[in-house]
Amino acid sequence: MRVEFKTDGGFAYLPGLNQPFIIDTGELSAREVGELERLMDAARFFDLSETTEPRRATADTRRYTISVSSPERSHTVHLEEPIEDANVQALVDYLRAKTRMLRGAGT
Fold it and tell me: In Å, what is the CA distance from 90 to each residue of 29, 95, 97, 106?
């Protein structure tokens, strides 16, 4: 499975640090894959609509794009803070932490 995670906007937005980040589950441990799949299931990721209801966006509104593809299916969602569903927020938090961790390991 391939997960592409992109962040836009937010306070002190720096485009160079917010390029899409790819997570290939073939490069993760079985525990990490299990956690990601558990979070996706809890968030009902493949049942989410492609976009959330637009809000009054401000310059510091953070937006996320999550695209997941596997041989069986693919789906993309666009989210905007605040994220009201705790399970979707948990998935975003996981992806943000994984992105920071993996980007830090690459430097």
Answer: 19, 9, 10, 24
* Residue whose pair of structure tokens reads 């510091």 in the numeric block: 60
HEC sequence for 59-75 = CCCEEEEEEEECCCCEE
Q: Kindly state the tokens that stand for 59.
A: 């310059």
Query: Please, what sign has the CA dihedral across residues 38, 7, 58, 77?
Result: negative
> 3-state SS string over 26-56?
HHCCHHHHHHHHHHHHHHCHHHCCCECCCCC
Where do the structural domains in the chain lie, given as residue ranges? Answer: 2-105
Q: Amino acid identity, residue 47?
A: D
Pairing outcome for strands 62-69 and 2-9? antiparallel
> What pLDDT digit, counting tens, does each position of 18-61 carry?
678 999 999 999 999 999 999 999 999 999 999 766 566 566 78
Q: What is the pLDDT of residues 60-100, one digit of tens each?
A: 788 999 999 999 999 999 999 899 999 999 999 999 999 88
